[in-house]
Amino acid sequence: NPALEDDSSHAWGFVVTSLDFSQDGRYILAGCGDGDCHVFEVATNIERFCLIEGHGNGNSPRCSRWDPANRFIASCGADRQVIVWEMPRDLDEQRSTVSSEKISRSFALEGHKGSVNCLSWSPGSDRLVSASDDCSLLVWDLGPRLALGALRQHSAPVLSCLFSSSGWYIVSSSFDASVVIWSADEFQVHYLLRQHPGAVYSLALSESEETLVSGGSDGLFIVWDLRGVLPDDLLQGAREQQVSRKELSETLRGCMADEGEEEPPGSRLQHRGEVRALHVSHGASFAISGGSDGKLILTGLRGNSSLRN
């Protein structure tokens, strides 16, 4: 925003541990070391809301997310809780520029037996999935505020999770070096992906749900082409066909080397350190990755989903 000055920043003396934009791009959500979340208006750089009664001072939110309808904000942390705040329906109403409006938590979801590392909203904003150190994922119904089911396959802490844009499946990754694709309605494992040699910290999925990217502890950056791998009924949200669990290490596209190529694209080190953040662009033309080596790598995704620098 050209109206913002170079010094348009905020400092509370707390670490900022998570960030998210509202779906309309007008607000920024920041989870901080005071255990609370803060909401800023992008156009004015003013803190509009402080979401209090969070995870407690010193217990930073590990993940904070707006829901797709901009009605709720959820965060999770080491206190084993998922905390939800309901936002005012008149977000764009003129508010005081002097101080931010305090909003108390609406409710907390409790059921995990370990720290909660990640969460993701369903596209309808009626469900949440959360990933925990207790090696499980829980799918929550925001109506009765209860867990609909537990997803158990991982043998180590679950580090990342996401709902597909259609809402018909869930993807998770773990310290056990696996990526799992789940049916969101039956809570069953559809596919178990194993090509990372170590912990898988980050995931990103294209809007078309055809391209999945995962990043691991060894700097591995792998593109999984789900076309022809996930059945059409799962991609399109149909429920009729039952699909058994399969190992994809030999059938996935986009991870094999061309003949004579020394390093298979997408299956060798891209970062000299852990890949901690990933995102796929609109249209799945590019993927951006961030690592503990201090680098951002922008990668083109070819038609066969292999990587090119």
From TrEMBL:
PROSITE patterns: WD_REPEATS_1, WD_REPEATS_2, WD_REPEATS_REGION. Pfam families: WD40. Keywords: Repeat, WD repeat. The keyword Repeat applies. SUPFAM superfamilies: WD40 repeat-like. Gene3D superfamilies: YVTN repeat-like/Quinoprotein amine dehydrogenase. WD repeats lie at residues 109-142, 151-183, 193-227. CDD domains: WD40. This is Protein HIRA. It comes from Hanusia phi.
